[in-house]
Amino acid sequence: xxxxxxxxxxxxxxxxxxxxxxxDADYPVPNRPVFATTYCDxxxxxxxxxxxxxxADGVLxxxxxxxxxxxRVVMTLVQPDGxxxxxxxxxxxxxxxxxxxxxxADVVMIDTPxxxxxxxxxxxEVTVEMGVxxxxxxxxxxxxxxxxxxxxxxxxxxxxxxxxVPHAVAFVESVDDVDLESVAPPIRHADLxxxxxxxxxxxxxxxxxxxxxxxRGVEGETRSCGTGAVAVVAVAKRLGxxxxxxxxxSPPGGDLMIRVPDRExxxxxxxxxxxxxxxxxTVPTPEx
Length: 288
Known about the structure:
Blueprint: E1 7-15, E2 18-24, H1 32-40, E3 47-48, E4 53-54, E5 59-65, E6 72-78, E7 84-85, H2 89-103, E8 107-112, E9 115-122, E10 125-129, E11 151-153, E12 156-162, E13 166-171, H3 180-188, E14 198-205, E15 208-215, E16 220-222, H4 226-238, E17 247-250, E18 256-259, E19 267-271, E20 273-281
Parallel strand pairs: 2-5, 6-8, 13-14, 15-17
Antiparallel strand pairs: 1-2, 1-20, 3-4, 5-6, 6-7, 8-9, 9-10, 10-19, 11-12, 12-13, 14-15, 15-16, 17-18, 18-19
């Protein structure tokens, strides 16, 4: 008896090194968590032969509704641990670039579990609205009734903010001196965060901030995190370090430009790159 392997076409995109397998949601993938866990694995996952990168920070399942003006994309990000993230800034920027390649539109609306976000494309640069950051305990969420601002949690002084997903942000002397893989997990799983949190460290530079983020769902550091970059500027503004101006935030993968105006949508701006395309089995073959 012959089994026909079911495959789906995919594309690989990244925004400042935050990389994603992108699949058109019109193609059926029966078990999205298994698909994501398999192909995002940094040792055995999808391989880009040109850059020799293995795996990804998540799978973007995108449903294009091109009859709208501007076109809309329903974005579902399944993370390497099989969970679904409510929001991903760099993922949303990649989704907008993917939609433009199909529609030619320079403005795209992206529907996420955290709300609808407007993206504007200019060359290889994409600016996406990120919602209004919130320090409210019910939004983060926190297991208490007061905001968490500059308090010690598991060894770091952090401020908690929601930028579509929760972040615990710590300003440090140098992000290079932080052993993120060891200091982040206790904060990420702290009782104070009933749904867990991303952990972001930042240090001031002459022209902005450097950033490193340990991502919930990836369960490790990523080369870039858009919601984390917005969280850095939102917290910096709360602490009086910056104003309404656009601020440069530099994760390991490149530069992002962030604006956090008062009571208006924050914005995330940066480049998007389409790496390559291919085919993947919808039901990954188990290891022998």
